[in-house]
Amino acid sequence: MTGARRHRRRVVMFPFPFRSHIAPMLQLAELLRGRGLAVTVVHTTFNAPDAARHPELTFVPIHERLPDAATDPGADLVEQMLALNAACEAPFREALRRVVRVGGWSEVACAVVDGQWYWYAALTAAAEVGVAALALRTDNAAALHCMLSYSRLRYSGYLPIKGNRDEVLPPVEPLRGRDLIRVDGGDAERVREFIARVDNAMRTAAMGVVINTFRAIEKPVLRNIRRHLPRIPAFAIGPMHRLLGAPEEHGLHAPDSGCVAWLHAHPPRSVLYVSLGSVARIDREVFDEMALGLAGSGVPFLWVIRPGFVTGIVSDALPLPEPLTAVVDNGMGKTSWRLAHPAIGGFWTHCGWNSTLESICEGVPMLAQPCFGDQTVNARYVTHQWGVGLELGEVFDRDCVAEAVRKLMVGEEGAAMRDKARGLKAKASKSVEDDGASNAAIDRLDYQSNRNQPESSG
């Protein structure tokens, strides 16, 4: 924004109420604020962000009414997302109208809506009052391309998967049938229905799409997205947490530094960091095999075990096998600061995109254990496209775990992946330099926001 303007224009942002979605939306909010835009964050009261950690942003709750099924931690994920969409449509529309009434049409530059708010009204409500609406994808370009390709996969006979699940699907190469977005235990048709709705909203109502990625790592996939969405510009703005600087300043929660002294006592690249994210839950049997495999590997490790991580059991009630080298009992802080510690030499991850991107930025190779959603897509790219990780596979017992951990941490294969990971780290660092591709993309987004009209091409 130029100094000639008499007042700052405003962006209205609406995150999806999952931690992994709120964090990148707030990162984008801070980036736009740094460009001179005022930011209003419209949010649900369910999983509300901590406004005190972002004093220069304006927060407006929508006071939605959610059914118990939408707030139950054990709820089916797809049904939860459908319930959230249904309950939040009207409250968001009214909140957006209030913001425009208070500030005036000319003050609001655009709305940025999380891509999981698929309903048509979320993106068109802005258009009704003359405000452009953009979608933020908190997954990567590969996952978005996978979603946009579902109709083609079905038309071409690849879906539903009837044959070898390990066969690569040409429209979404290098993905196999088993790598497509899924929710285990959920209804496959409901998953495809949700994806179809997101696809439709993207094609018919979004004026642009922002993706938390960088061109050097996903340039071919970004080209494929432009073929799917020829009239919609795609802004590769990432890694957003690295664009902001110190990662601990921009998380949802203050980092837990209680394990720092323990990490300081270990040699460089000797510790495996273990975290399966903020949502995934595992059965007790899987937990026990993880624990015994880790203990049997001989590799020191730092493990995030959050409340509710094991189905039906709270974390402090878990009898942990000996010897467990260290356990972090809350997973609420950002992962970046831990991965940045020189003692960390590997990351056992669920391959959520935030965690994957943080690992790439720190040059840390990964042990991939995807659980649901886009994590299978990310895991395939980590292991077979970028070559910076090992896949645990479906056979899961303590011996396999111990072997995989040793291979990643002390084997020659792990050393080669570490070299590749350092190369990706260098590319990520270059992308966020002042003259890097991601900063150029922010400039384009800032220009489009202030122009209040979509670009004519991607």
From TrEMBL:
Gene3D superfamilies: Glycogen Phosphorylase B
Keywords, in A-Z order: Transferase
Superkingdom, natural source: Eukaryota
InterPro entries: UDP_glucos_trans
Record GO terms (molecular function): quercetin 3-O-glucosyltransferase activity; quercetin 7-O-glucosyltransferase activity
One Pfam entry name: UDPGT
Comp. bias regions, Polar residues: 447-458
Keyword Hydrolase: no
Chain positions covered by the region annotation Disordered: 417-458
Homology family: Belongs to the UDP-glycosyltransferase family.
Protein name in UniProt: Glycosyltransferase
